[in-house]
Write a structure and sequence with these properties.
Elements: E1 3-4, E2 15-17, E3 21-24, E4 27-29, E5 36-38, E6 45-48, E7 51-53, E8 60-62, E9 70-71, E10 91-92, E11 95-96
Parallel strand pairs: 1-4, 2-5, 3-6, 4-7, 5-8, 8-10, 9-11
């Protein structure tokens, strides 16, 4: 697990997922753009047990046309009401977010 700090320009994206990847136990915060952008088919990525906090864009964005829902369950979206809450880091695309965490996880920084 690791903390992911703000990403500088030009893209400002915290994490850009292009192929098979697992993002878990991380804090994606204060990116100048979207927190995580998934570029390819949902079956190749796993995004669970993370904190999405104060990203300028979406917390999680699918950058492709999904034919089935991308599983992003069990994440903290910066609001106890989830990504659609008043302070939530939102999602873009066909994404399943429930169940979501109602409190942030404790991130261990090496």
């Amino acid at each position: 697990a690791k903390a992911i700090c703000p990403c500088p320009p030009p893209s400002g994206v915290g994490v850009d997922v292009v192929g098979a990847a697992t993002v878990t136990g991380s804090e994606i915060r204060e990116s100048l753009g979207d927190g995580v952008v998934v570029e390819t088919a949902a079956a190749l990525a796993s995004i669970h047990d993370n904190n999405f906090i104060s990203n300028a864009g979406f917390g999680l964005k699918l950058n492709y046309t999904a034919t089935s829902a991308f599983d992003a369950t069990n994440n903290w979206w910066d609001d106890a009401a989830g990504p659609t809450g008043p302070n939530g880091d939102g999602v873009s695309g066909l994404v399943t977010v429930t169940p979501f965490l109602t409190m942030p996880i404790v991130v261990q920084v090496p």
